[in-house]
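Data deposition worksheet. Section B asks for the primary sequence of the deposited chain exactly as it was used as input, without tags or linkers unless they were present during the calculation. Section C holds the resulting structure in token form. Section D is free text for depositor observations; keep each observation to a single sentence. Incomplete worksheets are returned to the depositor.
Section A, Depositor: J.P.
Section B:
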Amino acid sequence: MTYRSPAVKLEAALARIDRFRCQLTELKGKSMGSVRLWVARLMFCGSLVMFASSVAVAGDVGVKAAADSTASTVVYRDRDPAAMGYQARPGQKNKLRNAVRRTLQKDPQNVAALSQRAYWHAESGEIEAAQRDYEAAIAASADNPANRARVLWSRGWSHYGQGDVPGALADWSQAERLHGGHPFWVPYTYAVAYWTLGDRDRALAWYDVAVASRSAWGDEGGMKDLTRHWNDREKEQLLALFAAWQDSRSEATASAH
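Section C:
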């Protein structure tokens, strides 16, 4: 069965309500039985909206709740070509930037190059330029979910770097849904985001999932190797999270004896 978040279910229910509104204009001249049937269907659909709304509020605040039962039982190991950024080798940063520039000269709608340049703009504090490139990349990826996911994944990290963690989570959640499976980057990314927000329990729950999905996250050396390309602020947050996770594991072990 395909997973549909509460927010998606709510949108579907609201769409049904809109269809019923259109049908209302067609009821003039119909029999009373037809009217009663239409009203019954509308009441049923309304109940669906109320249910979906309550679930969305309780279980979906922009993203899937990290501490829910599904997060603790699912492992995230699916490959995701959308979760890729260009990394320059030592001393070759300008060469990489020039390569991206040349790509955009030849193909101004190249989604990967637009996303990368947007990320660099945001990293340099050129927020308006970053927004323009991300908007262009979103428009260029309208008919390609994989490309759209790539833009959202990249923009999520730009939001995070600017301190807009809720915005980052919103973009990452959409990228996850577009993937349709369990992409490898979700657990540790959400863990760091929630830790940055001060949501310790949710951050630790997601870090548990990260370790279950890839054991290297449970080893300090492995964790540092996996994030060697992260910037200093991101590494600082992750190290603090990792220390808290280790403490929580020690406490759990002690309480079990």
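Section D:
The chain has twelve helices and no strands.
The radius of gyration is 23 Å.
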